[in-house]
Write a structure and sequence with these properties.
alpha+beta, 4 helices, globular
Length: about 220
């Protein structure tokens, strides 16, 4: 009987030592299953740019966007669209670029109809070209569309497109206002050479989209 009693006590103590409280077991399980935080990345963030060009030999990389409208002046029969490429405030020297050209939704070479370029800040700023307020006109400079993709319906009555292209040797004259300032030795022109852009997207019915948007705004305002 004594042996049975001692065996019962030993088994009881063994069970107590190995039994875990529910709270303790739950906590340990949660700790084991907790997600491990990823180690911080040591790689330097490098932004991706879709526009690269040179200005007087200095290479500039930046982001660009497109706005495409119908060419109301019909400057070129086989190029019904007026494309406005803009790139704002690159990090090199506060550069702003606007390049206007005609195009169609297929690869080809199309004429530039306007360009402007600005660089520098405050008293050191320089302005070339003057397309604001002026009408587009054909020039001897061209943009070559190397790739044109139809991305499908934009669900607003038109299609979305993606284009890539290049240009070379575009010269933009300094504005007359800038040249009038004799206190600064401004160049008479800037050469925008070896330009290229990739996968810039646009909608081919931008005017229609704007009209419908304005109608909806007016209806909500009533």
């Amino acid at each position: 009987m004594k042996q049975l009693a001692i065996l019962s006590i030993v088994l009881f103590l063994f069970a107590c030592n190995n039994e875990k409280k529910p709270e303790q077991a739950s906590a340990e399980n949660n700790n084991n299953n907790a997600p491990v935080a990823p180690a911080p990345s040591t790689e330097e963030y490098k932004p991706t740019y879709n526009l690269t060009y040179t200005a007087d030999g200095t290479e500039i990389s930046n982001s660009a966007s497109l706005l495409v409208t119908s060419d109301k002046d019909k400057l070129k029969p086989d190029a019904p669209f007026l494309c406005m490429l803009t790139s704002n405030a690159a990090k090199n020297n506060n550069e702003y670029l606007t390049l206007n050209f005609l195009m169609n939704t297929k690869p080809g070479t199309y004429p530039v109809v306007g360009a402007s370029f600005q660089r520098g800040k405050d008293n050191a700023s320089e302005m070339y070209g003057g397309i604001l307020g002026g009408k587009p006109k054909l020039t001897d400079y061209t943009v070559t569309i190397t790739e044109c993709k139809d991305l499908g319906s934009n669900n607003m009555g038109g299609h979305k497109w993606s284009i890539s292209g290049t240009w070379q040797g575009i010269v933009v004259k300094a504005t007359s206002v800038m040249l009038m300032d004799k206190s600064k030795n401004h160049p008479a022109e800037v050469k925008l050479d070896k330009g290229s852009f990739t996968n810039l997207t646009f909608d081919d019915n931008w005017e229609q989209m704007m009209e419908e948007g304005l109608k909806k705004m007016k209806e909500k305002a009533k």
